[in-house]
């Protein structure tokens, strides 16, 4: 989910697109993000599921922000991946995501 527009607006432009989890799908996601001039990517650092995304995106100039799921899951009513993505984008836009530690 991409939220674009001034931070002082309650209704930023929303763009959503689904991608798979294969290497090719993640490379396509990276290309789509670049085409849309995205600068920051917020994602849940759940188990090992975030590692392929991180490995592929880390060679780009994107700012990667892994979010601790315990810090962002405490909101009732979010049931789908698309809603989760929009919620992460909203929190990230407002600077409310504390990045998880990534060991080197």
Automatic annotation (TrEMBL):
GO biological process: DNA transposition
Domain Transposase IS110-like N-terminal: 8-98
A Pfam family annotated for this UniProt entry: DEDD_Tnp_IS110
Source taxon at top rank: Bacteria
Example GO molecular function: DNA binding
Name of this protein: Transposase IS110-like N-terminal domain-containing protein
């Amino acid at each position: 989910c991409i939220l674009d527009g001034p931070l002082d607006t309650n209704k930023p432009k929303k763009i959503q697109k689904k991608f798979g989890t294969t290497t090719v799908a993640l490379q396509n996601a990276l290309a789509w993000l670049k085409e849309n001039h995205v600068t920051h990517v917020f994602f849940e650092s759940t188990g090992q599921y975030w590692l392929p995304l991180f490995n592929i995106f880390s060679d780009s100039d994107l700012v990667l922000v892994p979010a601790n799921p315990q810090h962002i899951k405490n909101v009732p009513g979010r049931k789908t991946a698309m809603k989760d993505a929009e919620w992460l984008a909203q929190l990230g836009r407002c600077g409310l995501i504390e990045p998880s530690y990534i060991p080197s």
